[in-house]
Amino acid sequence: MDLGKLSKGERIATVSAVALFVLMFFDWFGAKTITTSSLLFLIQAFEPDRSAWEALDYIPFVLVVAIGVTLTVAGLRLTPGAQLSARTNAVAGALGALSTLLILYRIVNPPIFAVEPSFTVEGTVLPPTFLSLAAAAGIALGSFLAMREEMASSSASGTIHPAPPSAAPSSSH
Q1: Closest Cα to residue 25, out of 58, 68, 55, 66?
Q2: Structural domain total, the chain
Q3: Structural domain contains residue 67
Q4: Counting CB atoms within 10 angstroms of each CB, which of 7, 10, 21, 153 has the fewest?
Q5: Range with the lowest mean pLDDT among 87-96, 111-120, 160-169?
């Protein structure tokens, strides 16, 4: 397998995708109990930290799709005879950007794990969440860079096909 076939952007996106997948198994959120009762000693139970898989509802599925598309683009690029357009990197970049925004949302607004009449268990952001944000941003940045590189190499080799001429508007008097 010749990784030299991947563009610089595709290498960035691929490494970021692998890093994000691994980081999804780390603890992203701790748990903080906030009590409104005088029974503090009974309520201060230990809550385990939670990974992305455990703490987030649908976001892990979006992240996995972004990771899968990014790795598929890299795999296809390494396949002899496969023809990829800049659009494939654009799809991976858009999914990477969406993943970045979803992780950023959960950093700003951490999940609430439990709400009871006398206490609430809130999530607290742990360092792997910030590393995951960087990895998701790496998918987006790398994919968009790869798209730009692909378009530049296509225009340099003259393989860009011009758009068909649009029909001139007809004016009826």
Answers
A1: 55
A2: 1
A3: yes
A4: 153
A5: 160-169
Distance CA 170, CA 173 (A): 10
Indicate which CATH number applies to the domain containing 80. 1.20.140
The closest alpha carbon to 77, from 18, 5, 139, belongs to: 5
Non-local (6+) Cβ contacts of 11 within 8 A are 3, 142
Structural domain includes residue 111: yes
Position 164 in a domain: no
- What does the block give as tokens for 2? 């010749």
Domain housing 41 = 7-152
Six token digits for residue 140: 């987006």
Query: Can you tell me which residue has the tokens 């683009």?
Result: 73
User: Which of 132, 138, 136 has the alpha carbon at shortest distance from 27?
Assistant: 132
Separation between Cα atoms, residue 111 and residue 55, nearest integer Å = 7
